[in-house]
Specification:
Blueprint (H helix, E strand, L loop, with lengths): L8 E3 L4 H9 L5 E2 L14 H17 L6 E11 L2 E3 L1 E2 L2 H11 L3 E12 L4 E12 L8 H7 L5 E2 L14 E3 L2 H4 L4 H11 L17
Parallel strand pairs: 1-2, 1-3
Antiparallel strand pairs: 3-4, 3-6, 5-8, 6-7, 7-9
């Protein structure tokens, strides 16, 4: 196996959680914000919505580069036939928590990876089933203090205090955080790269 210089990884996202997941896996990366307007997905299937947005983000950033591997991602919550994207206002989050209370919903994350040097692009998605505990009306305002900050799909975080609200998760936990790492690894393999070799402190060998 020949030693080679690995391409730089660029995350086309402003999400601190996505960047943190890559850092936790010791994967060096650079952040470039795409600044594209996300499709709200009205009338679309949830997987089509997240794939479209992930491709738009990755494509916008890849268009500014001559080399590197760009990762684009988009996450939504799907409940009762409706797509719930990022919620920024307190009242919208409150209404959504009422809807999610005691309900089963689905978290979708679309991934798009572009190898700028070769022009190859891959896209895929992950779906996770979750159920939220009952949130009593008297507890709603209290929960709003704990599950922020907002601007997240569905208006909630499953980390920290938010973890108390979810007694059942079926599927990839990291999908709920916005970056399903196992799927990402599989996609890198399909591009011809072993994600392990990108990890800081490794042998830094590319796949020959």
């Amino acid at each position: 196996m020949a030693k080679t210089r690995l391409p730089e990884i660029i995350l086309a996202s402003r999400s601190k959680r996505r960047s943190s997941l890559l850092s936790m896996c010791r994967i060096p990366h650079r952040i470039m914000i795409s600044n594209v307007r996300e499709d709200k997905g009205f009338g679309a299937r949830p997987k089509d919505c997240v794939l479209k947005n992930a491709c738009k983000k990755a494509g916008a950033v890849a268009g500014r580069l001559k080399k590197g591997i760009v990762i684009g991602a988009d996450t939504i919550v799907f409940l009762d036939g409706r797509i719930i994207g990022k919620l920024k206002k307190k009242e919208a989050v409150k209404r959504t928590l009422r809807r999610l209370s005691e309900k089963v919903s689905y978290v979708y994350t679309g991934l798009a990876i572009i190898d700028v040097g070769s022009g190859r692009c891959l896209k895929d998605y992950v779906k996770t089933k979750i159920k939220m505990k009952r949130i009593g009306e008297q507890d709603l305002n209290l929960w709003l203090k704990f599950i922020g900050p907002f601007d997240r799909a569905g208006g909630f975080s499953i980390e920290g205090p938010g973890s108390i609200l979810f007694p059942r998760i079926e599927g990839c936990y990291f999908n709920i955080l916005g970056l399903p790492m196992s799927k990402l690894c599989d996609m890198f393999e399909r591009l011809g790269f072993n994600l392990l070799y990108f990890m800081k402190g490794g042998d830094n060998y590319g796949k020959s």
